[in-house]
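User: My collaborator sent over this chain with a note saying "see what the structure looks like." That's all I know about it. Can you take a look?
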Amino acid sequence: MPRSNDAFDQFDDDEQIDAPIAHVGRQRKRAPRKRWTEFSEGEQLLDNFTMTYRPSLYEGGWLKASLRDLFTQQYITDVLALVKGGKEASVYRCAAHPRLGMEWLAVKVYRPRMFRNLRNDKMYREGRAILTSDGRPVKPTDDRILRAVGKKTDFGVQVEHTSWLMYEFTTLQRLHEAGASVPAPVATGENSILMEYIGDASRAAPTLSGTAIPEDDAPRLFADVMRNIELMLQLGIIHGDLSGHNILYWEGEITLIDFPQVTDSYANRNADFILRRDITRVCEYFARFGVAADPARLMHDLWEEYVAPQRGDHLPDL
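Assistant: Without extra context I'll predict from the sequence alone. Here is the result:
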């Protein structure tokens, strides 16, 4: 589960730390800049962690290092298959530990910085506090961490990465508790998020973009997506990258995924643009199946009901 922020106290802001934040409390010396030695020793660190899935050489090292805590804390017992590969993160189907009472779990593992190609997230981060590895905001008085982030030191970059990951996990927690259609979050590991798996043994749930949904179901599914957008606005957040590529479809139901770029609807100056883009993309997808919806009207009504009263930032009447 999310860990204590005590690890942040071990370093000065200029110290070059390439290891994941979850490690820094145990790290007394500067980590080498080339970390493939450590990754290649993943087999020695996790001799008992066997994987049915056969990763490539480099993938196997950082995958095992990233899943170390989830294995040793008895959340997972095996990695069974790659569900989705990506430049920023990959998702795997895992065998859940028997103590959890479920068969499978999905784990999202962010790729090492040298392989990762994160898009510019400045637009999404505006108005968001920096989160620690236990999901709590960094205190405004913690100048050391804030200076490291501002200077873009290795430690500061790692802090930002951990914050990015924890925004996804804590958002899943909030939305799941509120009744949203999202995977149930289970735990975080080093560089990874463990959550409910949607699918079966033969395949994971496909995205809407890769699915021809029954036309008769389209109005109901569209209404459910809009219900989730409205629920997020009630919590003061916007998905930020919502489209048919980030909505799963399984057994007649939808599940929203991928929340690291979640946006604060009250504090972000770009919130109107981001929300309008989410709504427009959703409307464009469902229009292919005969759903007639006016994204401008939906945007106006939702903004005026949930965002404008908090910001005093009203949209022109249509």
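A starting point for your reply to your collaborator: The mean pLDDT is 83.
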